[in-house]
Every structure is written in structure tokens, then in C-alpha cells.
Write a structure and sequence with these properties.
By secondary structure, this protein is an alpha+beta fold. The protein folds into 2 domains: 4-145, N-terminal domain of MutM-like DNA repair proteins (Alpha-Beta Barrel), CATH 3.20.190.10; 158-296, Orthogonal Bundle (Helicase, Ruva Protein, domain 3). It is built from 9 helices and 10 strands. The strands form 3 sheets. It has a 4-stranded antiparallel β-sheet with strand order 1-6-7-5, with no helix packed on it. A 4-stranded antiparallel β-sheet has the order 2-3-4-8, covered by helices on one side. Strands 9-10 form a two-stranded antiparallel sheet. A hairpin with a 2-residue loop joins strand 2 (51-55) and strand 3. Helix 3 (158-165) crosses helix 6 (210-231) and helix 5 packs across helix 6 (210-231). The protein starts with a helix and ends with a helix. The relative contact order is 0.14. Its cofactor is Zn(2+). InterPro entries: FPG_cat, FPG_N, H2TH_FPG, Ribosomal_uS13-like_H2TH, Znf_DNA_glyclase/AP_lyase, Znf_FPG/IleRS. Residues 248-282 form the FPG-type domain.
Length: 297
């Protein structure tokens, strides 16, 4: 799933290519992709993109006050095309969910018969969660309206973070992934942040000491900041592989920890899994994998 660093890099990539460009046509191809109907996506046609923003994991393509907001979910992606065929594709069972054609670039030496620039939104698999909204105000998108603060914003101070961790008996892994608490962090980077902070994913957030809160805040800012810098300037098609190669524990079950050499372990859930290093994070004690325990009974 694309998380804050990849979406921020996509924002940079699209800002450079979309700003000042006109929309020729927008065509949804999957029934499930469009979450709003008034205005429809055809209202974007003839408008000019003025800015590309990000809200957590949401991309916000601003076409003069009308926003095309995209959430890529678990298996969605944006594929830039230098030459989209002018004829519309046939809706079908493939991964293509939406196509957007741009008007011709006045500065480009291109024959319109060769196709125009634009992008496809695609989604692999059968569980269709990619979401597109056409709205006048991004705050009208429910997922954006409930977002917590952006963890890389200047106003996201250690004091703000400490306040977010207080109250209740939530485990720190779940809090980091909760978009209403902190925007943009998912399963992968929460694993990475907790490994960098040398903290168990099952630690109760409200029981953390001031030193532990400070260490987690530092790990969060450094981990996300480094991931953004690694991704900056990459083409959209290179971001997935960059994310995978940059991860130290997430997705690396059975491999040696890059810090201490212990074997990275996993806890499985119904629809996800977390990875951690016992020596770095849990005092050498493996965490119970309840899903695997049930299978072994």
C-alpha cells in the first residue's frame, strides 16, 4: 500500500507534470472507483490543473477549484503515460480503473495523432478499494475530514505527538496506523518506525515514559523524512521498488535484522501482518502469533 513517502513523491512527480496543463477527458472504467457523482468527472474537462497536494495518503489534483482526489488503497497505483491512445479503452475486468487525458502541451513537438500525455489509475486483485472523488472542497471527502495531523508538518511537535498518545489503552502500533491520530502512516512504516525506536508494537501508548515518547517521535520523523528523500525525484514507476528496498524489517520475515543480526519475526492477523526484531524491540522475547497458534491446535 502506498503510504506517506510514496504519495508525497507522487505529488512532486505530478505537480511537475500537471501544473498548467488542461484536462481533455476523464473516463472512469471500473464501476467501483468513483465515489462521488455530482459534480461528475466530466466537469473537469476543459479546466486547467493549478496545484497538486497531499492529505495523508490522499492525492489532491486541483483543477481551478474542482478537485480530483485519489486514494490508492492497498493495490492501486498511478501510471504516467507519455502517449495515451486517443480512442477510449473498453471497460472490462482488467486492472484499469480510470484514465485521464491531458490537452496537448503547447511547448511539445508532438502530433496529436501520436496520442496525448496523461495517466491511468490501476488496481490489482479482486478487492476493489481504490477511490476517486470529484469535489469542490477536499474536506468533503470523509477520509480527509477525519485525518489527524501530518507527521512531517512543522506544527507536528513533540508536545503534539505526546498529547496524541495519551488516554485509553491502545497499542502503539495501532495508534501509528490510525489515520485520525496521525495521517499517512500504514503497516509498513509503522513497523519501520517501531524498529528504529527499539519498541514493541504491542506496547501500551499511554504507559510510555517521556524518554520513550521522545525516542518514538524522533524515529517517526527520521524514518519518514529519510523515505521521502529517497523517493524524491523518482518516476512514478520506480517508487514501489524503492519502498521495498528501503524497508529494514517490514516484509523481511526470516531475514537477519540489519542492526543486531537476530531473525526478523512476524505476527499474523486476518488481513495483515507485522514484522519486528525480538532483540531490538521485545527484549529477545518472541511475540505470540495467535493466528499461527490456532492453526497448530
Amino acid at each position: 500500500m502506498p503510504e506517506l513517502p510514496e504519495v508525497e513523491a507522487l505529488r512532486d512527480f505530478l505537480h511537475e507534470r500537471l501544473t498548467g496543463r488542461g484536462v481533455r477527458r476523464v473516463m472512469p472504467l471500473a464501476v467501483s472507483v468513483l465515489k462521488t457523482y455530482d459534480p461528475g468527472p466530466d466537469a473537469l474537462e476543459g479546466r486547467t490543473f493549478t496545484e497538486v497536494g497531499r492529505h495523508g495518503k490522499f492525492l489532491d489534483l486541483d483543477a481551478g477549484g474542482l478537485h480530483l482526489v485519489v486514494h490508492l488503497a492497498r493495490a492501486g497505483w498511478l501510471r504516467w503515460r507519455d502517449a495515451l491512445p486517443p480512442q477510449p479503452p473498453r471497460p472490462g475486468k482488467g486492472p484499469l480503473a480510470l484514465r485521464l487525458w491531458l490537452t496537448a502541451d503547447p511547448g511539445a513537438d508532438r502530433d496529436e495523432s501520436e496520442g496525448s500525455e496523461g495517466f491511468d489509475l490501476t488496481e490489482a486483485g479482486t478487492r476493489k478499494r481504490l477511490a476517486v472523488y470529484c469535489v469542490h472542497d477536499p474536506a468533503d471527502v470523509p477520509g480527509i475530514a477525519r485525518l489527524g495531523p501530518d507527521p512531517l508538518a512543522d506544527e507536528f511537535t513533540p508536545e503534539v505527538f505526546a498529547d496524541l498518545l495519551r488516554g485509553g489503552r491502545h497499542r502503539v502500533k495501532g495508534l501509528l496506523r490510525d489515520q485520525s491520530v496521525v495521517a499517512g502512516i500504514g503497516n509498513a512504516y509503522s513497523d519501520e518506525i517501531l524498529h528504529a525506536a527499539r519498541m514493541s508494537p504491542f506496547k501500551i501508548a499511554a504507559e510510555m515514559s517521556e524518554e520513550e515518547v521522545a525516542a518514538l517521535y524522533e524515529a517517526l520523523r527520521v524514518t519518514l523524512g529519510d523515505a521521502v528523500e529517497r523517493s524524491r525525484g523518482l518516476a512514478a514507476g520506480e517508487l514501489k521498488s524503492e519502498k521495498k528496498t528501503g524497508l529494514r524489517v517490514h516484509g523481511r520475515k526470516g531475514e537477519p535484522c540489519p542492526v543486531c543480526g537476530d531473525t526478523i519475526r512476524e505476527v499474523s492477523f486476518s488481513d495483515s501482518a507485522l514484522q519486528y526484531c525480538p532483540s531490538c524491540q521485545t527484549g529477545g522475547k518472541p511475540l505470540a502469533d495467535r493466528r499461527m497458534s490456532r492453526l497448530l491446535k
